[in-house]
């Protein structure tokens, strides 16, 4: 490369650098404010997470524990409403609704209502439950909603929810039970073909489940 060409490129670089410096000097305040604004947002988010979200989650987890114990003891009223000292699930939902514990409290509350035959209240709680992406819990919540609709006599909606739960779970524990329940509801609706399809799914897909060994009798009964 010639000396003349190198000198020309160097001059062009100097011009661009001067232009950039000039632009920075003219707009320094705006640039620094922009960078500072981004950093401020990041810092605020981190501070909120550290000093607000994390403590709220911790408080919620601590608050829900007595209600969980009452639920396990079968004391559903105490689990829902607390005992005057400890919070029940409803209070946890009200105070910590935007936390993981607040979300799971919706599912617990739904189970309490279902156990005490308050099926519409259970459905309302399940509608608040946001799911958790778990292969067992979320499908079980869908199945619980299906069972509540069945108790209210809405068999079509119940069967569809149970089919959805079986598909979401796709395992040998939840899916066969949901498919069996859905099949029985379809029989009650006079839709034997759909019932047989449910039973055949258990026979063909979930051979490790306990229901596999007795599903033939359901298929035979539905075919009559």
SSE topology sketch:
Elements: H1 3-72, H2 76-81, H3 89-96, H4 100-115, H5 119-128, H6 137-151, H7 155-169, H8 174-188, H9 192-205, H10 215-223
Helix pairs in contact: 1-3, 1-4, 3-4, 4-5, 5-6, 6-7, 7-8, 8-9, 9-10
Short description:
With 224 residues, the chain is mainly α. It contains 10 helices and no strands.
Protein model, in words:
Residues 2-21 and 28-49 have low confidence and may be disordered. The protein contains ten helices and no strands. The chain has 224 residues and is mainly alpha-helical. Helix 6 (137-151) runs antiparallel to helix 7.
By secondary-structure content and strand pairing, the structural class works out as mainly alpha
Count the helices. How many? Answer: 10
Radius of gyration: 30 Å
* Mean pLDDT reading: 80
Helix content: over 70%
| SSE topology string | HHHHHHHHHH
State which percent range the strand residues make up.
under 5%
Total E-strand runs: 0
Low-pLDDT ranges? 2-21, 28-49
Distance between the termini: 94 Å
Characterize the main sheet.
none
Shape: elongated
């Amino acid at each position: 490369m010639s000396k003349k060409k190198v000198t020309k490129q160097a001059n062009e670089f100097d011009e661009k650098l001067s232009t950039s410096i000039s632009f920075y000097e003219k707009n320094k305040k705006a640039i620094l404010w922009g960078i500072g604004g981004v950093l401020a947002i990041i810092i605020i988010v981190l501070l909120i997470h550290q000093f607000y979200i994390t403590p709220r989650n911790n408080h919620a987890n601590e608050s829900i524990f007595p209600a969980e114990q009452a639920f396990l003891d079968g004391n559903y009223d105490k689990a829902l409403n607390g005992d005057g000292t400890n919070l029940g699930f409803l209070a946890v939902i009200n105070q910590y609704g935007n936390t993981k514990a607040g979300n799971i409290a919706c599912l617990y509350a739904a189970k309490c209502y279902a156990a005490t035959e308050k099926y519409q209240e259970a459905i309302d709680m399940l509608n608040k439950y946001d799911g958790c992406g778990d292969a067992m819990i979320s499908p079980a919540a869908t199945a619980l909603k299906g069972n509540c609709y069945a108790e209210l006599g809405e068999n079509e909606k119940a069967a569809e929810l149970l089919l959805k739960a079986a598909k979401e779970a796709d395992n040998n524990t939840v899916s066969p039970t949901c498919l069996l329940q859905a099949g029985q509801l379809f029989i009650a609706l006079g839709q034997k073909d759909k019932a047989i399809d449910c039973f055949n799914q258990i026979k063909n897909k979930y051979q490790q489940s306990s229901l596999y060994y007795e599903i033939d009798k359901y298929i035979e009964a539905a075919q009559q």
